[in-house]
Amino acid sequence: MSDDTSVDIDDVNTVDDEQDDDDEGNRLSGGTPLAVVTYLVRSIASEPDAVVINTEERDDTVRFRIHVAPDDMGRVIGRRGRVAQAIRTVVAAAGARNGVQTNVDIVDD
């Protein structure tokens, strides 16, 4: 048995329009906001590998619970919560593009 995992680029770029409709129920409704919050928090944190983001989906709302290293709590929250509020605003905008409401919580372990 071969471990060859090469993929033909033409197979990757081919799109089947009928398949898009069938996969609608399998998509994470908060995919874009999750990518945005992950990118933002990992960029801000001095220990990006310690960042853990838990998601909880209910109806049209996605809740993100962010866990960071104790030394990064101040960086992610910011003075008077300004950085945290900016993260919430950008993630809400990303969620609005998907028709999803978002809630971002920064959790102290």
Question: Key terms for this structure?
Answer:
alpha+beta, globular, GMP Synthetase, Chain A, domain 3, 109 residues, three-stranded mixed beta sheet
What does this structure look like?
This protein has helices spanning 9-13, 17-22, 31-44, 73-77, 82-97; strands at 52-58, 61-67, 101-107. The chain is of the alpha+beta class and 109 residues long. It has a domain at 51-109: GMP Synthetase, Chain A, domain 3. Helix 3 (31-44) runs antiparallel to helix 5 (82-97). The longest helix has 16 residues, at 82-97. It is globular, with a radius of gyration of 18 Å. The N and C termini lie far apart (46 Å).
Q: Please state how the strands of the largest beta sheet are arranged side by side.
A: 1-2-3
Shape: globular
CATH topology of the domain at 51-109: GMP Synthetase, Chain A, domain 3
**First-residue to last-residue Cα separation:** 46 Å
Q: Number of helix segments?
A: 5
What kind of sheet is the major sheet?
3 strands, mixed
Strand content: 15-25%
Q: Helicity range of the residues?
A: 40-55%
CATH architectural designation of the domain at 51-109? 2-Layer Sandwich
- Would you tell me the structural class of the helices and strands? alpha+beta
Q: Can you tell me the CATH class of the domain at 51-109?
A: Alpha Beta
Q: Supply the CATH superfamily name of the domain at 51-109.
A: K homology (KH) domain
Low-confidence stretches: 12-23
Topology order in helix (H) and strand (E) letters:
HHHEEHHE
Average pLDDT, rounded to a whole number, is 82
Number of strands: 3
**Rg value:** 18 Å
